């Protein structure tokens, strides 16, 4: 009753005030998990595609998830997984034969779905981090500096919620920037911070040997983001691959070799589909300084992980 009266008064004053009150007095979208056969099928298919690193199956997987989402647009996980398939599509675009300009629509869709997921489940720090990444990239593509700034602060919020995961997530998108820029340097600093948090020490930046910390491995709590898991079976290897690439791009190839070598400490290194890629990087590390600094790389070996066409599969493919 009072809300209705305020609305009448506000509408007499300004249209803007009227809108604000009308929105605030309307219930927000509520989360509601889906367990229908279609939702179960879409989810099962999603994990299979991700764990097989099967980029070519993305159209089919996206179709199923979208159908499940339309059946119940209140499921935070379906919304988030739609965000993930769209961001995967654009991140690994180097796999496309011809990259169409419409590939950029993928980041618009990713931003939209991650925003929905965050609204429905604000506690999931992973959705928060990927929303920040999507906003940053879409701002960059559309030359909207304010959107980039919003994305950056969204990332800072996500880092505060789960630093072991989101220092990586945030710094990873920044690996694409000019290696002399402040943002690139900050992105690399965030990788070091991940290692400090994961080891509970200040890691020696001249000799970042990870062997003393292997006993800390866990699949529980926040620190699980430091190791391999069912969700990200080669997270450990992929993390060190990206960090080695960022150091190489900065010209610090001596430390890059030591960081790359840490990937080999994983118990499942020998089954990692990208181990040869890592070993070629160690061999070509000096030449790669120049290659990684170029804007348009022409092969996976000459591009940083983020632009290599394996930017998601490196950690998620079994
Ligand atoms: C350095 C390794 C790494 C890279 C690269 C990476 N991820 Fe992840 N990803 C992780 C980790 C670690 C988690 C958190 C797992 C957990 O919650 O225990 C995660 C979580 C996820 C999830 C789980 C969401 C859920 O509902 O449980 C999805 C989906 C995902 N990532 C997709 C992607 C996509 C798509 C890309 C590429 C744009 C990507 N990841 C890049 C390591 C990585």
Account of the 3D structure:
By secondary structure, the protein is mostly helical. The protein folds into two domains: 35-161, Tetratricopeptide repeat domain (Serine Threonine Protein Phosphatase 5, Tetratricopeptide repeat, Alpha Horseshoe), CATH 1.25.40; 177-318, no CATH class. The chain is built from 15 helices and no strands. It has helices at 2-13, 15-24, 37-51, 58-71, 76-91, 105-120, 125-141, 145-161, 163-174, 182-199, 235-249, 253-263, 275-283, 285-293, 313-316. α5 (76-91) runs antiparallel to α6 (105-120). It is globular and about 70 Å long. It binds heme C.
Number of H- or I-type helical stretches: 15
Strand portion, in percent? under 5%
Largest sheet, if any?
Answer: none
Helix percent reads 55-70%
Number of strands: 0
Q: What gyration radius follows from the Cα positions, in whole Å?
A: 21 Å
Taking the alpha carbons of the first and last residues, their distance comes to 58 Å
Brief overview:
The chain has helices at 2-13, 15-24, 37-51, 58-71, 76-91, 105-120, 125-141, 145-161, 163-174, 182-199, 235-249, 253-263, 275-283, 285-293, 313-316. It is mostly helical and 318 residues long. The protein folds into two domains: 35-161, Tetratricopeptide repeat domain (Serine Threonine Protein Phosphatase 5, Tetratricopeptide repeat), CATH 1.25.40; 177-318, no CATH class.
Key attributes of the depicted protein:
single chain; Serine Threonine Protein Phosphatase 5, Tetratricopeptide repeat; 2 domains; 15 helices; binds heme C
Topology:
Blueprint: H1 2-13, H2 15-24, H3 37-51, H4 58-71, H5 76-91, H6 105-120, H7 125-141, H8 145-161, H9 163-174, H10 182-199, H11 235-249, H12 253-263, H13 275-283, H14 285-293, H15 313-316
Helix pairs in contact: 1-2, 3-4, 4-5, 5-6, 5-7, 6-7, 7-8, 7-9, 8-9, 9-10, 11-12, 12-13
Bound molecules: heme C (HEC).
């Amino acid at each position: 009753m009072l809300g209705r009266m305020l609305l009448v008064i506000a509408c007499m004053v300004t249209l803007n005030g009227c809108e604000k009150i009308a929105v605030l007095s309307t219930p927000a979208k509520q989360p509601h998990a889906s367990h229908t056969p279609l939702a179960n099928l879409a989810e099962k298919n999603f994990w299979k595609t991700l764990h097989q690193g099967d980029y070519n199956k993305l159209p089919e997987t996206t179709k199923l998830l979208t159908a499940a989402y339309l059946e119940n647009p209140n499921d935070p996980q379906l919304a988030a997984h739609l965000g993930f398939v769209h961001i995967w599509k654009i991140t690994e675009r180097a796999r496309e034969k011809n990259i169409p300009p419409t590939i950029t629509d993928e980041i618009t869709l990713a931003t939209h779905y991650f925003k929905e997921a965050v609204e429905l489940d604000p506690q999931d720090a992973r959705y928060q981090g990927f929303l920040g990444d999507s906003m940053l990239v879409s701002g960059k593509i559309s030359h909207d500096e304010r959107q980039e700034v919003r994305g950056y602060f969204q990332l800072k919020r996500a880092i505060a919620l789960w630093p072991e995961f989101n220092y990586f997530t945030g710094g990873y998108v920044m690996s694409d920037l000019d290696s002399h820029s402040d943002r690139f340097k900050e992105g690399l600093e965030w990788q070091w911070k991940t290692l400090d948090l994961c080891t509970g020490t200040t890691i020696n930046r001249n000799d970042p040997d990870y062997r003393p910390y292997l006993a800390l491995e866990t699949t529980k709590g926040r620190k699980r983001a430091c190791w391999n898991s069912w969700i990200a079976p080669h997270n450990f290897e992929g993390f060190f691959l990206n960090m080695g690439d960022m150091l190489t791009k900065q010209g610090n190839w001596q430390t890059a070799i030591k960081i790359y070598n840490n990937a080999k400490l994983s118990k499942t290194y020998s089954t990692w589909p990208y181990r040869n890629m890592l070993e070629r990087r160690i061999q070509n590390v000096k030449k790669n300084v120049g290659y990684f600094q170029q804007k348009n790389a022409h092969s996976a070996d000459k591009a940083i992980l983020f632009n290599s066409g394996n930017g998601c599969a490196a950690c998620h493919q079994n």
